[in-house]
Structure formats: C-alpha cells, structure tokens
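Please review this one.

:::
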Amino acid sequence: MLTIPVTKKWFDMELAGIKPEDYREIKPYWEVRLCKLFGEKGIGRGIEKEVKFRNGYGRNARYFIARCLCKVGTGRTEWGAEKGKLYFVLPLHELLERG
C-alpha cells in the first residue's frame, strides 16, 4: 500500500471531506510510485486502489486509508494547486479506516 505524507492543513480538510482530492506534482518520484500502484495504464482509467495518507512522518502520526483513483489534471487553487499546472490528482472516494 502506498503511503502519502500530507501536511496538517490539507490532511484535516481531506479527512473532513472538505477537500475531496489530493494533489501530487508530476515528477519522477511520484510517477514511479503511482505507476507502480495503479499500473502505467491504470492512471486515468477508473481503477481504484487503497492509499494511506499520513499527517507527517512520525511513528504515531494520524492517518486515514481511502479508496482512490489517479488521474492527471489541474487542481483547485483554493486547495493548494497552482493555476494551470498539471498534477496527479487522487480523488478520495471512500474512507476505509482512520487512526
């Protein structure tokens, strides 16, 4: 399962359902990890996977696990995306666990 660290502001908004998607920059680091999880042809194809989102890196950090898709697109500026920039967008579909 892929674990993605998220800063407190965005983590709290995602957990509360205010921000229903997470953004990751299109860089080799995320490309490798997301392609490994979703498969090269799985990005943008409606394949759901479980992803763990952690509020930081600490051993006792809060987390939640959600069923997500992965697509490439622009994000919303009010949710931290730069206007007109492409991102890996991870829509959060179903919250499975929180801790």
Observations:
- The first strand starts at residue 2 and ends at 5.
